């Protein structure tokens, strides 16, 4: 979960859990129309607390739910089709050889502390990520220079053509532009100073509160502020929405999606996502370093049953990560459930059963717990005993980072380009390759795909890489879920997005 923007979403994120069972009703201050942030406070029920607020350090989706509204990037995905459009950069040009990108910056932009935005802030932000080798430094793999010839111009020099450069610098707020020397001026873990439509007011174990930034370059938000309230249990989040205690949530019980479609007490919307969920095994822990063992486990998993258990029809089983409505989708599904073949592969690998496999999940994403129970039942048939380890997300991420696991189950969110689905997760020593996968052929294909400018040729490269990744079971891909969100009837101006970015700038309360 993007994060993972893993939750990666991708991608993933450390966070501390604070359950909230409803609480007192919130006065939203009346109607939501008008300008100047005078439309009351929108209360949003989310599943978890941000692990931290430094956009260049976190990979947590709960953090980016907040940061989406606080920071800006040079370019940003269009809410309609996720193509890149201007944000802090109002335009850009590319040299004929594709190695020089020149961005013209927007005028009249200020940070929340009132300081003016200019090219020095972009250079600082990008150099911070690159020089300190922060979470998203891989996104600058082909960038050899970041220069500011004048206050309104930023020039990126590349070592190779990079067809997805705009996605690399604008896909999510992990690429946010901070004011020059921000890390020295404030504690970015707990404080924020962005150019976005809302400024950070407070963040603690119960909620994160934002207030409208009246001087936002795109105009002041319609609401006066946003309170992100952490309600871990989906049923409790839905009840809070129906009772009027909150006005928006993305924590909807999957088993109630169908019935809520006809429920007048909420406005429910779904859309296919660009996310994927997966299981991955630790190559540093025998016998999971054995390809036959991983393939046996993959053959024993019924992905349709896992998707149904996790999302009750609001997910599509997929063995190759990229959803079927994408140009880059690969229709490849070699692992039809076959218990006998799975047992044979385990025997061939010399594995004595019962084999015990720990599987890390987190109750802060409840579908992982439910799905893990189904997977455990399926693997039991081939002599694999799954010990489900249900952890808080902070512990989950810490153990993932230390390699302290047999296997884990989570998702990567907000993927826009094929490189986002495969490159950093499966290239040798990739920043998100926690499983320890290494295949020189995959490395070569991913490197070629990253710089190939012809879209058809690029797809062929990623198809080849994806097929090997699936065959090797670097990730055991499971399904693509829908984005499911609900809000109070009469709430206007909000748009559900396939990348799960939560943007409240144009929302008007009932």
Automatic annotation (TrEMBL):
Residues 84-429 form the Solute-binding protein family domain. One of its GO terms (biological process) is peptide transport. Keywords: Signal, Transport. It comes from the Bacteria. Residues 1-21 form the signal peptide. GO terms for cellular component: ATP-binding cassette (ABC) transporter complex; periplasmic space. InterPro entries: Peptide/Ni-bd (IPR030678), SBP_5 (IPR039424), SBP_5_dom (IPR000914). GO terms for molecular function: peptide transmembrane transporter activity. Belongs to the bacterial solute-binding protein 5 family. This is Peptide/nickel transport system substrate-binding protein. It comes from Geodermatophilus nigrescens.
């Amino acid at each position: 979960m993007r994060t993972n923007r893993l939750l990666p979403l991708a991608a993933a994120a450390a966070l501390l859990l604070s359950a909230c069972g409803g609480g007192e009703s919130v006065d939203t201050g009346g109607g939501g129309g008008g300008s100047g942030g005078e439309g009351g406070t929108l209360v949003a029920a989310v599943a978890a607390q941000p692990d931290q607020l430094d956009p260049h350090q976190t990979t947590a989706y709960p953090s980016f739910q907040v940061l989406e509204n606080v920071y800006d990037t040079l370019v940003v995905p269009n809410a309609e089709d996720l193509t890149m459009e201007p944000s802090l950069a109002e335009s850009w040009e590319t040299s004929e050889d594709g190695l020089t990108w020149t961005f013209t910056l927007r005028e009249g932009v200020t940070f929340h502390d009132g300081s003016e935005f200019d090219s020095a802030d972009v250079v600082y932000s990008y150099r911070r990520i690159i020089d300190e080798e922060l979470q998203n430094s891989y996104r600058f793999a082909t960038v050899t220079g970041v220069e500011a010839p004048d206050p309104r111009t930023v020039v990126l020099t590349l070592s190779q053509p990079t067809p997805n450069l705009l996605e690399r610098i604008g896909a999510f707020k992990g690429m946010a532009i901070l004011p020059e020397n921000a890390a020295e001026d404030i504690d970015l873990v707990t404080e924020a100073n962005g150019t976005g439509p809302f400024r950070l007011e407070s963040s603690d174990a119960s909620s994160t509160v934002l207030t409208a930034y009246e001087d936002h370059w795109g105009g002041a938000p319609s609401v006066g502020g946003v309170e992100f309230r952490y309600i871990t249990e989906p049923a409790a989040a839905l009840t809070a929405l129906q009772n009027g205690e909150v006005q928006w949530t993305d924590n909807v019980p999957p088993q109630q999606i169908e019935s809520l479609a006809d429920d007048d007490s909420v406005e429910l919307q779904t859309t296919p996502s660009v996310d994927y969920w997966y299981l991955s095994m630790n190559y540093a822990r025998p016998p999971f370093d054995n390809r036959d063992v991983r393939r046996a486990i993959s053959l024993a998993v019924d992905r349709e049953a896992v998707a149904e258990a996790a999302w009750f029809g609001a997910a599509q089983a997929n063995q190759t990560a990229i959803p079927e409505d994408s140009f880059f989708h690969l229709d490849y599904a070699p692992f039809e459930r076959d218990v006998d073949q799975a047992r044979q592969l385990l025997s061939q690998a010399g594995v004595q059963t019962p084999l015990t496999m720990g599987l890390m999940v987190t109750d802060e994403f409840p579908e992982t717990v439910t799905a893990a129970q189904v997977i455990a039942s399926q693997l039991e048939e081939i002599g694999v005993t799954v010990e489900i380890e249900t952890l808080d997300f902070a512990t989950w991420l810490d153990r993932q980072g230390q390699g302290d696991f047999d296997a884990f189950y989570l998702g990567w969110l907000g993927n826009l380009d094929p490189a986002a689905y495969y490159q950093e997760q499966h290239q040798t020593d990739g920043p998100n390759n926690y499983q320890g996968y290494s295949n020189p052929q995959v490395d070569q294909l991913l490197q070629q795909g990253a710089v190939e400018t012809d879209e058809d040729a690029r797809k062929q490269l990623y198809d080849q890489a994806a097929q090997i990744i699936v065959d090797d079971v670097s990730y055991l891909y499971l399904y693509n879920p829908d984005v499911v969100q609900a809000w109070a009837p009469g709430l206007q101006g909000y748009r559900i997005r396939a990348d799960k970015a939560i943007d409240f700038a144009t929302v008007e309360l009932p």
